[in-house]
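Practice problem 4.
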């Protein structure tokens, strides 16, 4: 079934798509969607009904870009479980179309690790030294947001028992809190020999670093950061495809394969702390502590299965 829009509605959709492609201000993405959606409802999408949908979405989350914990040492990204959950308010219109505006709790992040198996050997005219390190290092990033999506959804036949559908939209997320936990455990075996001197042995090393909000804790102490390590606002696009099952005239079940991604950088590169004793110096968290690759952009993304139950009002 083809969607019939007024000339005014078509012009607005074209302007809306062009604006989203060129937009740089994160807050403006959400405002643009709200204004466009409201205008469409008033100019050709006369409301046919409404509903409230409760959703839960288990998902795999990722953050783009390389994660370092030492120069030239990259941690390998792992599967990271996350989820969204909350309420969608649906506005049902003609031509099998609907508009949804939601408020969700969104958990995202990235886990990464590295198996340590390093060896060093040094030889000089006076002797030699060697060491072997074995162990594991891991970094877990956990981000918690309030997420507000706006979606346009199309249904193949909303009156049938099973209706296939898809949606496109955008979202803006507000960072509630975050945690970064790094741990490095190593077992070191060493051996050295010089003229008149021989030594060998083994020992354990453990490093840990934790960041919660503006508090950074390491093996050397606890420090207050100038600002949080992640941006307070994240905005992006989202897509979904799946099916809706009509249980009764008022109750519907749905399942969608969902994907979303950020438009821009989610990290705050200016986050730092300053030490005044015994000497004054400043450490930037991403550049000096976590050895960020400044040439890359770090964005959120997630793919998951959205499950929902909708009550028609």
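Answer key:
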């Amino acid at each position: 079934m083809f969607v019939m829009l007024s000339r005014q509605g078509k012009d607005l959709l074209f302007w809306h798509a062009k604006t989203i492609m060129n937009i740089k201000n994160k807050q403006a993405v959400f405002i643009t969607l709200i204004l466009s959606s409201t205008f469409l409802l008033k100019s050709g999408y006369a409301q046919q009904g409404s509903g409230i949908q409760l959703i839960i979405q288990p998902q795999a989350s990722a953050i783009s870009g390389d994660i370092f914990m030492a120069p030239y040492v990259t941690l390998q990204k792992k599967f990271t479980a996350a989820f969204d959950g909350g309420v969608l308010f649906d506005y049902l219109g003609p031509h099998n179309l609907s508009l949804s505006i939601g408020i969700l709790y969104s958990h995202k992040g990235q886990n990464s690790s590295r198996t340590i198996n390093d060896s060093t050997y040094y030889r000089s005219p006076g002797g030699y030294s060697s060491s072997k390190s074995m162990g594991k290092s891991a970094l877990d990033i956990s981000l918690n947001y309030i997420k507000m999506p706006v979606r346009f959804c199309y249904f193949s036949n909303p009156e049938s028992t099973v209706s296939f559908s898809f949606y496109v939209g955008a979202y803006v997320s507000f960072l509630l809190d975050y945690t970064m936990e790094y741990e490095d455990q190593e077992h070191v075996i060493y051996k050295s020999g010089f003229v008149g001197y021989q030594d060998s042995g083994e020992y354990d090393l453990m490093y840990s670093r934790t960041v919660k909000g503006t508090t950074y804790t390491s093996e050397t102490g606890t420090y207050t950061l100038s600002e949080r390590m992640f941006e307070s606002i994240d905005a992006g696009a989202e897509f979904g495809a799946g099916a809706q099952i009509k249980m009764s005239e008022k109750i519907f079940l749905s399942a969608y394969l969902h994907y979303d991604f950020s438009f821009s950088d989610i990290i705050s590169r200016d986050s730092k702390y300053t030490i005044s004793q015994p000497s004054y110096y400043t450490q930037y968290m991403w550049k000096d502590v976590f050895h960020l690759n400044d040439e890359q952009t770090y964005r959120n993304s997630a793919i998951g299965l959205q499950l929902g139950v909708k009550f028609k009002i």
